[in-house]
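User: I'm curious whether this sequence folds into something compact or stays loose and floppy. Could you predict its structure so I can see for myself?
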Amino acid sequence: MKKILKVVMVFVLAFFARAVLRRYTPRIVMVSGSVGKTSTKDAVAEALSTKFYVRKSEKSFNSEFGVPFTILGVGNPWDDPFEWFAVLKSAIGLLILPNHYPAMLVLEVGADRPGDLARILRFATPDAVVITRLPEIPVHVEAYASPEQVREEEFSPAYSLNPDAPLIIPSDDSWVVGAARRIPARILTYGIAAPSTAHIREIGFHTTEGVVDGMQARINIDGEQEMCIVKGSVGVTQLLPVAAALATASAFNIPMADACAALENYEAPAGRGRLLVGKNGSVIIDDSYNASPAAVEEALTTLKSFSHAKRRIAVLGDMLELGRFSVTEHERISVLVGESADVIVTVGIRARAFAAAPKRTEVLQFDNSRAAATALADFVREGDVVLVKGSQSIRTERIVEALLANSADVYKLVRQEKKWREKA
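Assistant: Here's the prediction. I'll summarize afterward.
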C-alpha cells in the first residue's frame, strides 16, 4: 500500500510541477553530478541572483519528490497528511491565482537508482546544466550495473540541452570532458586544469590573525582575475563551486565582478567541510553529510594539509551503497588514512578496514556514532584537528555535536530537523 501511495504522489507532484513550469516558463539551471552538487547549486544561485529572481533547491532536495517541492515552492511534508494537503493547495493556487514566480530555478538533481533522472527530465527541461565531478566509483553504485551507468545517468541532463545552450563542466574530470564532446552544447569549464573558462590558481588557506578560517584562490575568466575567498570551510573542493558559479554567471552575461560580489554571501552547506570550534581547544572539520570514496579522499587530503596540528584525528564512518566495490574501496582508502591521520577512529563494521593502514597510528574503533560520540568528547585536546565523515545512515553528525565547544552551535550541523533527530 505504501509503495502504491508513493507512486501516486510522485505522479501528482510531477503533474503539478509540469503545469507550473508551463505557466510561468522560468529558465532552469540543473546541477547534477556525484560530488559537490549542493555546494555548487548554492553558489550558482548566489551568482545568478545578481541579475535574476532566483529560487534554488532547499538543502539537498534533488529527487523525484524534492525537485517538484522546489518548483512548487513548498517544504517537505514528510508523513504529515495535513502538510501534504497544504502542498496540493499551494500547487493549485499557483495555477489559478497570479503569482510573482521566479525567473530562474536552480535545481539540484540526483539519482539513487536507474531511471531517477529520466523521470525528473520528463517534467523539467534545463536551459543550462552544471555538472560536478563524476568519479570512477560514484556514490549509489550498488544500485547500478556498473560505475559507467551511474556516470551516464548523472550526466544525462546535458543531453536535454538545446544546441548552443550552456553546459558547465569540471575541466579536471576527464570522463566528463570526453562525454561533453558528444553533444552540441556551448561548453564552459571550471577547475584547476588549464585551459579552463574559470581557471583556479594560487590556492591556499585563508587566515585571520594566523588562524585558518577558510580557503582562497585567484580565479581567471577571459583575462579578468578576482581573488575569491570561501570562509568557514576548508579543502580545495570548496573552491570548485565558486568557480562553477562564475562560469555559469559568464554564460548568462553577468560581469565577473558582480558575480564575485554576490559570492561573498556564499558559504558551504552544513556538513561539507565546515570549520567548527571543538571542545578543549580543538578544531572540527565537519564533513558529516555523506561519504563516497572520492569525497573521503578529498577530505583526508585536506586533513593532511593541517601539518601544524598537534594531532590529526580522522573519524570515519562506513561508506555505504558501494555494493561489490565496498571492500576494495575501504581497503584502498586505508592507505591514504594512514598517511593523513595521527589517530584513526572508525565507526561501523566496514570502516574497520581503514585501521589497516600501513603506519603506526593510534586506532579507536566503535560500532556506531553514539558510542563514538560518548568516548571522543573527552578524548580531544588543544591543538587537535578532527575530521568527521561518514555516510548519511551512519549519522556522524552526532559525533560532531558531542565535540562542539558550544552546544548552541548545533544549528550549524546537518540533519537537525525534528524528523531526523527522532530517527534511531
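Summary: The chain has 14 helices and 15 strands. The longest helix spans residues 2-24.
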